[in-house]
Amino acid sequence: MRSAARPTPPARPAQAPITPIAFVHAIVRAYATAGRDPGEALRQAQITPELSRQAGARISAAQMEALCGFAMRELDDEALGWFSRRLPWGSYGLLCRASISAPDLGLALRRWCRHHALLTDDVVLRLHSGEGEAHVAQRDARVDRPAGEAVHLAQQRDEAELAQVAER
Prior knowledge:
With 168 residues, the chain is mainly alpha-helical. 49% of the residues lie in helices and 12% in strands. The chain has helices at 22-34, 39-44, 49-53, 61-75, 91-100, 105-119, 149-167; strands spanning 19-20, 58-59, 123-130, 133-140.
């Protein structure tokens, strides 16, 4: 297993804190489920215990990126406990590599949706296109819980990954 310890990234320009603290709470729950201490991940992201306890608090995108990156590696789960099985580090990288070679965005998105189903069946992605427009629909397929925070957070992560594929 790869060591989660990484040097602290260089300081970035200050960003407005717009990401709800609920995202941090979800990641802390993933640590609790794994029986691990989130302390180092929170330190790497410069999230203090006081901030994490403030109702309605927000963190910057850079803090969220640092927290997720560290936690995904340390827990070896890119889904951070949100799916019924863990997604080992590199799972979404495989999706990117499978999609990036597509000759057009439509095929890249179809590949992404199809291959995502190989990783997890907790969330079903479907590409709908026609009349010059396309969108990816997401459905929570787990029957043991209502759709909620986990699916919403996963959707935002997937959308960011898809945007990276589309930029190339």
